[in-house]
Amino acid sequence: MSLLEKINSPSDLKSLSRSDLPVLAAEIRDVIVDVVSRNGGHLASSLGAVELAIAIHYVFDAPDDKIIWDVGHQAYAHKLITGRREQFHTLRQYQGICGFTRMSESPYDAFSTGHSSTSISASLGMACAKRLKNDKSKVVAVIGDGSMTAGLAFEGLNQAGDIHKDLVVIFNDNDMSIARNVGAVSSLLSRTFSAKYMQDFKKELGDFLKSLPKIGGDVYQFAKRSEESLKNLITPGILFEAFNFEYFGPINGHKLNHLIDILNNIKCLKEPVLLHITTKKGKGYPPAEKNPVYFHGVGSFEVETGNCIKKKGPIPAYTEVFGNTMVELARKDNKIIAVTAAMPEGTGLSIFAETYPERFFDVGIAEQHGVTFAAGLAAEGFKPVVAIYSTFLQRAYDQILHDVCIEALPVIFAVDRGGIVGDDGATHNGLFDLSYLRSLPNMVVMAPKDENELRRMLVTSMSHNGPIAFRYPRGRGTGVNISEDIVPLPIGKGEVLKEGDDILILAIGRPVCEALSAHSKLAEEHNISSTVVNCRFVKPLDSELITSLAKKIPRIITIEENVRQGGFGSAVLECLNDEGVTSFHLKRIGIPDIFVEHGPQELLRSKYNIDASSIVNAARELMNQC
Ligand SMILES: Cc1ncc(C[n+]2csc(CCOP(=O)(O)OP(=O)(O)O)c2C)c(N)n1
Q1: How many CB atoms lie under 10 A from the CB of residue 624?
Q2: pLDDT greater at residue 188 or residue 442
Q3: For 88-141, what is each residue's pLDDT tens digit?
Q4: Backbone phi, then psi, for 228, in 5-degree steps?
Q5: For residue 208, is pLDDT > 70?
Q6: 360 lies in which domain range?
Q7: Mean pLDDT within 451-470
Q8: Closest C-alpha among 83, 67, 75, 94 to residue 32
């Protein structure tokens, strides 16, 4: 029996001797690599945090002590230690355990996560609550250096240092976000990372001091005695101490004994403490150590080689089409600028970054800043394209409203991963953007039916003098031939794709292909003829086309991969009402008022009726009713 098989809760872990722990760490790594190689997941981050998870649970007493894993993507070892070993093979699968921490999944998951940089704020709230309840248990936040680039993390540090609560922050520094980390704080940290830097610096300073005539030797002796303060001058301690945190580190986060000793000491302190540990992303699995960017979030792969199992097909992903089109357009227009928030690969912009480095900005995990930064660029006459996943753009809602829309600045929003994203689940689905964007004055909101239309929307955006957004799905396109010529679209105009008298199907974005296949099924199997409109614009809606068709064909179906409340179907209802069209029956197909769980995209689309057969059923019901 392996050591891991004996562990059903952290108390089993505590019964192991310290000398057993490295063996346990190796077993945990094997399980993580094995399961992620089949299910996909956040491999490199989780491998880097195995010793940390063991040490934390060895020292602290969860679930009374609260452990909050920022983002929660690095918490696989934590899940294995806290009673989920037997379910771990279901990681990220439909009805299996979640890829992030979920309060509803386990009492050991102290906070639900997925979006970054929440851990310090949440743990400070818990620490305050514990103080009010006279509860002496501890709160520990674990945050990575990438997540520390967000303003939210600093807002948490700022308050924590001020109100001086008993809180432990473990700063897991691996010098990487998904890609290499960016920003001034990150460069401060990576300077200390390298012991060589420290040595070189000390030697240079020593040589300089010794070379000073007469006083040099004395000053050198003094400086040597004051090495501690010298070190403080150039370590991040200075940064965190400015927030009133007691700073420890940096220490090697893979040395279990050392980690456990220091955590035991820290546990007794009653003030805000920051422990800085350095770890290696992908630790223990050579392919992930070599390529941590690829293995940050990976699909299934061959364990022996690390090679991807699903070979790349000929149909490009929407993301790729977007990235290539950006490069194509930027060649002819030097006003085009690309902005990403820590996702150069995920948003397809790496190729832009390589081709036009001076016009590419990775702002770090700082979506709010990224949007306002783009507003500044637009105010100076540039054409910033802000490429952010739908779910993370939620962070920047006020910046879109206040900094972009009020003055109608021409910022282009490339909203990737709109719709159901699949395995990452509720925190990552992009199911709200059509609703949250269409409510903003001055904003144009579009969704392409295929890859060519995505290109056309990008070109349309470039010549539009105001805020404009297009959202597109995760995954492969429809496989249409990519036409070289990119013709702009008339703003606010839809296109009729099929004509028929019985049912009017109004579709937006990816579901247009479902509408087309429903059209054929209805005709072939049910003798029902339908008109299919690719609406293209959620705002401004093509109200002329929609009202004129609705008057002729009053049985209407709308379909969107977005929540129904406030979305495209609601926009159609509002439009018909405003235009005085009263005699119609309308069924809205979209996501109900719930958060969609994790699972394969296709399964979830069919579970939530975003497919052709749901359109067919709705059409048949409408035909029977009226
Ligand atoms: C608000 C937000 N933006 C972007 C992401 C996507 N994302 C997930 S993990 C990650 C990098 C986190 O880096 P770090 O905190 O250093 O953890 P590591 O993976 O290096 O262990 C990013 C950008 C996110 N989860 N949340």
Answers
A1: 7
A2: 442
A3: 999 999 999 999 999 999 999 999 999 999 999 999 999 999 999 999 999 999
A4: -60, -45
A5: no
A6: 318-471
A7: 98
A8: 75
- Taking only Cα atoms into account, the Rg of the chain, rounded to an integer number of angstroms, comes to 27
Residue 519 sits in the same domain as residue 466: no
Q: Are residues 284 and 405 in the same domain?
A: no
How does residue 312 score in pLDDT terms, banded at 50, 70 and 90? confident
Task: Tell me, yes or no, whether 267 lies in a domain.
Answer: yes
CA of 326 to the centre of ligand 1 (A): 24
Question: Ligand 1: residues whose CB is within 6 Å?
Answer: 45, 48, 71, 73-74, 115-116, 144-147, 174, 176-178, 281, 342-343, 365, 367, 392, 395
Residue 305 domain flag: no
Whether residue 18 lies in the annotated active site = no
The preferred substitution site among 116, 371, 399 for testing ligand 1, maximizing ligand atoms within 8 Å of CB, is 116
Q: Looking at the domain assignment, is residue 7 inside a domain?
A: no
pLDDT range class, residue 313, cuts 50, 70, 90: confident
435-448 confidence digits (pLDDT tens): 999 999 999 999 99
Sheet with 530-534, side-by-side order of all strands: 495-498, 530-534, 503-507, 555-563, 585-591
Atom of ligand 1 lying closest to residue 144 CA:
15
Please report the pLDDT score of residue 33 as a whole number. 98
Q: From ligand 1's centre to the CA of 296, what distance in Å?
A: 9
pLDDT of 233 reads 54
How many domains is the chain built from? 3
Query: Are residues 445 and 391 located together in one domain of the fold?
Result: yes
Query: Do 193 and 323 share a domain, yes or no?
Result: no
| Residue where one domain finishes, among candidates 471, 506, 529 | 471
For residues 228 and 232, give the distance between their C-alpha atoms in angstroms, rounded to a whole number: 6
| Catalytic residue (one of 79, 138, 280, 395) | 395
Q: Would the pLDDT of 227 be above 70?
A: no
- Which pLDDT does position 218 carry in this prediction? 60
Q: What is the 3-state secondary structure (H, E, C) of 81-106?
A: HCCCCCCHHHCCCCCCCCCCCCCCCC
| Same domain flag for 328 and 275 | no
Task: Confirm whether 281 is a catalytic residue.
Answer: yes
Clarify whether 438 is annotated catalytic: no
pLDDT at 234: 60
Query: What average pLDDT does the segment 298-324 reach?
Result: 93
Q: Which two tokens stand for residue 394?
A: 């939620």
The reply to whether 257 and 349 lie within a common domain is no
Q: What pLDDT, on the 0 to 100 scale, is given for residue 54? A: 98
Residue 216 CA, distance from chain mean position? 53
Supply the residue whose CA is at minimum distance from atom 23 of ligand 1: 342
**CATH code for the domain of 567:** 3.40.50.920
pLDDT at 181: 85
Lowest-pLDDT choice from 47-51, 162-166, 566-570, 593-597: 162-166
Residue 298 lies in a domain: no
Rounded Cα distance, 486 and 461, in Å? 12
CATH number of the structural domain spanning residue 363: 3.40.50.970
With beta carbons less than 8 A apart as the criterion, state whether 567 and 419 touch: no
Res 462 pLDDT > 70: yes
Together in a domain, 218 and 128: yes
Is pTM beyond 0.90? Reply is yes
Sign of the Cα pseudo-torsion (150, 155, 156, 157, in order): positive
Residue located nearest, by CA, to atom 15 of ligand 1:
144
Q: Which of 438, 471, 504 is the last residue of a domain?
A: 471
Q: Do 189 and 272 reside in the same domain of the chain?
A: yes
- Ligand 1 nearest atom to the CA of residue 49, by list position: 21
